[in-house]
Amino acid sequence: MLKAFTLTLALATSLLASAQSAAVHYDSATKVFRIDGGNVSYVFGVNPRGELQQLYWGGRLGASDSLPAAKPMPEWASFDSSNTTTPQEYQGWGAGLFVEPALKVSFSDGNRDLVLHYESHTLLENGIDVVLKDIGRPIFVTLHYSIDPASGILARSAKIENRGTLPVMIEQAAAAAWTLPPAAYTLNYLTGRWAGEWNLTQEAIHPGERVLESRRGSTGHQANPWFAIQAGESSEDHGEVWFGALAWSGSWRITIEQDQLEEVRVTGGFNPFDLGYLLHAAESLETPIFYAGYSAHGLGGASRLLHHFELEHILPRTAATAKQPLPKPRPVIYNSWEATEFHVDEAGQMALAEKAAALGIDRFVMDDGWFGQRKDDHAGLGDWYVNKEKFPSGLKPLIDKVHSLGMDFGLWVEPEMVNPDSDLYRKHPDWALNFPGRPRSEQRNQLVLNLARPDVRAYLLGFLDKILKDNEINFLKWDYNRNWSEPGWDQVLPNEQKRVYVEYTRNLYAILAELRHRHPNVEIESCSGGGGRVDLGILRYTDEVWPSDNTDPFDRLTQQDGFTYAYTPQIMMAWVTDSPHWLNRRTTSLAYRMLSSMQGSLGIGANIAKWTPEESDLAKRLIAAYHQVQPTIVQGDLYRLISPRDGSEFSATQSVRADKSQSVVFAFIHSTQKGHIFPRLKLQGLDPAAEYSLASIEGKAREGTPETASGAFWMNHGLDFADGFRGDFQAVAFRLDKK
Ligand code: DGJ
Description:
It is built from 13 helices and 36 strands. By secondary structure, it is α+β, with helices and mostly antiparallel strands.
């Protein structure tokens, strides 16, 4: 008996150890590569033709398991050669390839046939570099693979090199292609529009191709560069899920393709639409990184892996948190945009700051309207000097006031844009993206500056650096309120102009990186009229995002639900705004609005000058309660217990701290129907043997609910809500603390 226990313990320990470790292996006899990390194995090999062929991606294999050498698919018919049906890791367009190519080029002599075969490889600590080369021409592609030892999330990208003497035009370049074997699958992706982002869309994968993309020059509200594919019966809590996210904030594309032999291929990278990247002799092009992972625990397991990976490996650190394993939870902010719009001035902002401080707010953010001749959205963008009518002595008096109230200060900027009615545009009309002699489409009365130009890049870095040097600013809300149109760049040769799609985004990243380097305590929010620029590329340089301009607390529940499939609640800013809401004209209680926003990183965006003492007291109490449990909510394990999608009568989420010492539960009623009571909630992720006390953050549990019970009780029996918890737009929240 004792022996059996010892053995079990040893096995459990070794499994745990293997789940946290990475291993990289190459078998020279079979030419098979294997990468292990977390609970994942990824295997590919060089087949007899020299192609790099995917062999396995899924749950971690035994340490001594090996897979046979790669064998190309047999030719199905003269219409589908083996090249096109063999699942390749990175296929060039050539040799009769009919599926989505990873790389498509035109050589200077008109030849467009590209056939990439294995050349060499280097084993790295947690990854592999594999070099492919065209069978005849000096085009080399280095495929980078690395795995996160904890989550098993792979990072893949490609470096395309022209080692010839003539330029090569790159027309399509993916970061990676991922393959799944024939089976029944469901695809999940996120779609939306302005004020309506983060809709989870689910559909069966059928033969043919589903294209997720942005052709807009930036990430876009309409689709987000994330996917999750569920196998067979997989659900929120159970079953296999493969997921991925592309780290690119420019035009992007992910295709999900079921080929004629029913294999599923996911290919993603730069959007080939209108792309033409002229690669001169000796030049190279690095693609974005395409991250992807696997979970055997449903969509919930997949998003928890992704959340932890983002917190640990993607999000930046400030100087203060440089050595911390996780970035710090976001300060609770106040922002007056919805209350005052462009009508900001010293007295008004100071008055709001006093009110905000009394509520327990950590950071006061001044939004649009403080600069240039900015009275509305017709003028001023580009003129980044303080408007003297609104702030006669500059920003210092306001910033000093905010500091004296115990808050730090943040400022809104929209650096990449210009209003034609601005000094900047009058001086540099050629700085805007445009095709000379053609009309320039304006949206929100503004044009996009061509950040691919070195002078524009220098201007942006210069004025932002100066604002941060001249003022004690801790935070920039970096906005971006339109997409590209007429993306001409006539200062370079015609065949170089389409490089704008790559250079613009790279320069954006370079500016963000340099600003963070020069001002290591400044934090940045990525905002694009709400959630138009949220992706793992921009998140390497920004601490949080503005998910949507839609702050209706009920709409936000579905938006927040969708958002969390791909992104951690840590970055999900959520403001409490006024009721009735400007968008839906819906009236909701302050408690409901507060609890909806407390699911993410809380902010207040209401006109607090008009709040009654009772409203202020409630907000103050809930902000204090939020501060106590915030790390659990934004950095813990998130369980989406009842989805708010499809007009669901009820919804609920639960977050559990990594050490299982605390859990927070939110429950919402849309509109009670036919007297339904809120269903008993079986909690998840607790320590079954530990005792947890239940306390209300807002609202009541059913009479007779134990004040303390085991994790097993809360997970098996569940939590009952008060019978009176009914009505329209109702919310309650509880915390459970381990004794
Ligand atoms: C769009 C943002 O999403 C809003 O929060 C606000 O900052 C406005 N822009 C300001 O113009």
